[in-house]
Amino acid sequence: MQSRRDFIKIMALGTGALALSGGLFAFMDPKREDGRPVVALDYKTATYCEICFWKCAGWAYKTEKGELWKIVGNDDDQHSNGRFCPRGTGGVGMYNDPNRLKKPMIRVEERGKQVFREVSWAEALDYTAQKLSGISAKYGPEAIALFTHGSGGKYFGDLLKAMGSTNITQPSYAQCRGPRDAAFLATFGEQPDSPEVTDLRDTKCLVLIGSHIGENMHNGQVQEMSDAIDKKATIITVDPRFSTAASKSKYWLPIKPSTDLALLLAWIHEIIYNEYYDRKYVETYTTGLEQLKEHVKNFTPEWAYGITTIEPDVIRQTAKEMSNAKPAVIIHPGRHVTWYGDDTQRERAIAILNALLGSWGRRGGFYRPSKKTVPSYPHPEFPTPKTTWKDWFPGQYPLADNPVSNAFVDASIPTKERDAFLKAWIVNGTNLIFTIPDQAHTLEAIQALELLVVVDTMPMEITGWADVILPECTYLERYDSLRDSPHRKPAIALRMPAMEPAYETKPAYWMARELAKRLNVGEYFHFEDQADLLDWQLKKMGSSLEELKKKGVITWDREEDDLFFANGEKIEFPTNSGKIELYSSAMEQAGFDPMPKYTAHEEPPSGFYRLIYGRAPMHTFSRTANNPNLTDLMDENVLWVNPKVAKEWGLKNNDPVFLKNQDGIQSDFAIKVRVTERIRWDSVYMVHGFGHKQKQLERCFGKGVSDTQLITKVKIDPVMGGTGMRGNFVTFIPQVLA
Amino acid sequence: MRYAMAIDTKKCVGCSDCVVACQTENNVPIGYCRDWIVEETNGTYPQLEMELRSERCNHCANAPCVRCCPTGASHIVEGGIVLVTQNDCIGCGACIASCPYDARYPHPDGYVDKCTFCYHRVKKGEKPACVEVCPTKCLYFGDLDDANSEVSVILKKRKYKTLIPEAGTDPQLYFLI
Hints:
- The complex is a heterodimer.
- By secondary structure, chain A is of the alpha/beta class.
- Chain A has 24 helices and 26 strands.
- Chain A has a seven-stranded mixed sheet, with helices on one face. Chain A has a six-stranded mixed sheet with strand order 20-22-21-26-19-23. In chain A, strands 10-9-8-12 form a four-stranded parallel sheet, with helices on both faces.
- The interface between A and B is large, with 56 and 42 residues.
């Protein structure tokens, strides 16, 4: 197909932007006697963090001079307990990053070359509205889609709904937690939620299947895992890599990658055939034990040993440990679980184990979350769209309860038989090039679009493909919706601006409202100032913006003492049978195995290694890769290589290597080798989110390698559309230095 | 009074929050740090052990950096905290060379800088920034002369070690093992 779009490197700053930056990045006066800034007490502003989805509430402090000083946790907040994680603490760097997007830009053609032209907000918004309106008139509003991650999604989502499109997707579903949500819904009728409803602090046994808490810095979870360590909980970690969590574990099971489901089935076998399960709980609340018992009959530890390389005795012992701890045991659902394309089935096995051990709804297992509903300001009903994403590919991904981002990509590519369903994307706060695997496929979709609007704070790779770039201010420079995430107790948190928006950046709420006005749907955005909306909502809830500005967080007691199931409580679970379904009728009705089966996955060809990727505690995906404070902690990813493999290839620590995957895709950059015993010999490991190609990300450009670039073979989970990404294999191309 | 810190290596996940919290609290320029993380792995796959440590100045009772300072800029204050008076420091670097823990660095403004145990906070009865921020609560701070301080209490309960004890500096960071 003809390339309609050239990747444009965001232009160097105009002089106007430079002038605006004057003083902003000057460090605080280091000549002060003790080197520290003086701070006035009222220079403390309530916020909640946007560096990741945990949304910890805290306080942004400014110096007397009005410079941003530090961000610390709010003691009254259940998400942070007064302690921010390194990324949240380094949030100051998101504000201070000199590479931020500064002015609205529009793609134009000049002398046969595509470039970005800096424009006024009025021009950018008029242009965007005119394009959206044209596309809506020609193809229907349903041809407009939103990809989002973060707080701005609410406002652009409302804009789309007001126009008549509900095609709103978050890659955090199909590229991340979707399979576990689908599996837990099929089993319990409920999801593990965000923050997860794991009662880690009181658990007696925590089982992590590839989940690397401590490296994934989900604040509350890390804190509570530490509490569990203090209380001598047994930790069992299943991982081909000696993760930080593995180093804290009583049992580390160095499993052969891609075989987790066999281990889980053997555990289920052990727990059923030794009658380790919580008999009363299983009898009262579950259905399908007899079928499950029959199903796992042959899945013995010996059977699993041949597949997983985990010794039968270890499988038996760990099953006994779980049983001893029950019901205060958590087989953790994980978060990023789109691995091999049968992920919903693996997560079903996890859900089943939790059900057998009676941990769902029990202290030390999973609690019942509670949340406060924030009232919506009355507005006309949203129009009903003629089609939704579910109509594009009838019957596909039947158990997806969230729109599947990769289906949006598919729907944007025309075929011989049909035109593309989607013609315009608005992308807010998610760098799709680094988020959705198979980059060539994503770019094919982008090339076919008539409009790509990118709303971001940073010149991420996705901005290089945009028709319009709308520079968003950071979370430290704006109000946002009240945080009302569920937790042990219902609570709300406030985000308000600590700083004025730098340069010509604007809050997403303002952008969406301005577009809505231009598209004649302004009535959905009643308040010009979001602060007035917050005050209206808070007054309805018996508080006020004034009060919340002082407190940052309000936490209420639960209406009932029902954090856990009461003894003998009658419970109707929101499943087909009203019971916890060990044998899933929902899966069966949709044409899938009602009980999970192990299937073997492809293994690396000779000379290739399975590419495993994960998180570092100081970064959130690729979005923090340029943050000056956080790059100071970690400025590139490295490739973990087992010493045996390193020897075979003659690789030493810090040797730069290029990587090539099974489809011949070569990494854009070289990555430094880290020779370590902490990784299996059949795999290599890197932290996700590095290897940036966008030169205007000056600190992270060309540092390390992008795992996403090398993930070209994608195993789609037919149950819910998740993109399995762990079936890619790489080999080394040692860099020859002149 | 004797200030000391205990670091629980069983809980530390090496996230570096202590590092960035110190940098923002104390205005440490980017590219420098007063505290840092050490990861030590032993064994061969799959028989492995790993220790993670948040390290900083040991505020030694017998501090070579103070003894060798030609101007008296390096000095000991209340509670045994080792400090540097910036205006008195000529940046000669003798202290940097004398420190067995490599805890000092030359600040770009010409003086030598290091961890102060957040003296400015401790004076007010607050904890050092790193202790207050740590998500795993693996850092304990307090007065060893007070038997009820959290650092005294934890050292009574747990096994611990110090780093390079053979240097004879009487270090005051205790690593719980």
